[in-house]
């Protein structure tokens, strides 16, 4: 049985109670509301997996509620209940994005059947795309439209803006949604390994290849392959990638068989790819092949109406995963979130909500519980303490700032790739990526 809460929106008290009873007896957790306005309030405070709503209600009717839900929670399924014989209302609700409809009066068994179907097809909470700001809503809309084509989409935007969230959304909305979604982070894997992981290899292709293995392209057959941080790929590998994209076929390393591919390609990048092309770090032909349809996600500070819905969504997600009650955000806390500039975007907001949850009193998150990393004091301890901290195996704040300075110095050389920076610092590219993300979350501008 699904754990998702079903929200019943119906102004007729007797019918509302009957619907709630029917679903509760079938094992669902149920919440209820008397009209669209109060339903939106419930949605703000509760994680809901499905809305079952009447059409005719006052003051906010089912159509308006549906429109608000589609703009604010685009992936939340809605089952509309229409008056018997009013097929036009049902058709217009379906056009507006309702998942299904029930014509009144209906048997309890039909309600249970439809609810079950809608919940089965519903997005898990992790897959939801929050889009309240007009700019984000337009992007979701665009992403939904481009999803239906076979076009290669390159999603750009600062770190933590939700590029992977959008890539997954495009996959779910595409004609290959039933196929696999395979993602590979091109920045986190050393070049020779990345090649083997992308294209696969035959037994004996290189030392240590004891068995043959399919690559990510093959794993993504009939589905979507996301090339995350594609700009970090080396030039020689870019050439090989281009060939696979042009030919729509792949050969495993050390293999002779040509494997035809039917894979939708998506890519993301934190960098301005045009600038990378101009600087000679990214192949122009690959740029054009990947950017058939470019989508750019603006930073969170440029879509302020997303901040609070995202904060609430993230809070709910954290509370659900930790199975704890969800505290309210006080009005002053909301204002503090709205006033911040979010250099680390949604990922930074996620961190702030996690910390807020730890620091709050359980029922309410106040402004004091919301601390941004850039506001946290860095103690100026004498160097003796650095050594002591290091010998205890913990990284003191001073050591951390020395480390940060080394990373920033290394990154400030324009001609050095991230891969070379990682090598020079003696850390893996994955570790470097993690440390850069932490610095970004703390509001530090990253060179390059
Ligand atoms: N619109 C959104 N709705 C819901 N969650 C979001 C949204 N945007 C971002 N997130 C959340 O923010 C976090 C960062 O998102 P994501 O990994 O997609 O960002 P990114 O741009 O791909 O980051 P990076 O460039 O560092 O890889 C994730 O936890 C994701 O679930």
Automatic annotation (TrEMBL):
Residues recorded with modification 4-aspartylphosphate: 54
Molecular-function GO term, any one: ATP binding
Cross-referenced CDD domains: AAA (cd00009), HTH_ARSR (cd00090)
Domain Sigma-54 factor interaction: residue ranges: 129-358
Gene3D superfamilies from the UniProt entry: 1.10.8.60, 3.40.50.2300, Homeodomain-like, P-loop containing nucleotide triphosphate hydrolases
Span of domain Response regulatory: 5-119
GO terms classed as biological process: phosphorelay signal transduction system; regulation of DNA-templated transcription
Record-linked SUPFAM superfamilies: CheY-like, Homeodomain-like, P-loop containing nucleoside triphosphate hydrolases
Pfam families per record: AAA_lid_14, HTH_8, Response_reg, Sigma54_activat
Keyword Nucleotide-binding set for record: yes
Keyword terms of this UniProt record: ATP-binding, DNA-binding, Nucleotide-binding, Phosphoprotein, Transcription, Transcription regulation, Two-component regulatory system
UniProt key word Nucleotide-binding: yes
Stated name of the protein: Sigma-54-dependent Fis family transcriptional regulator
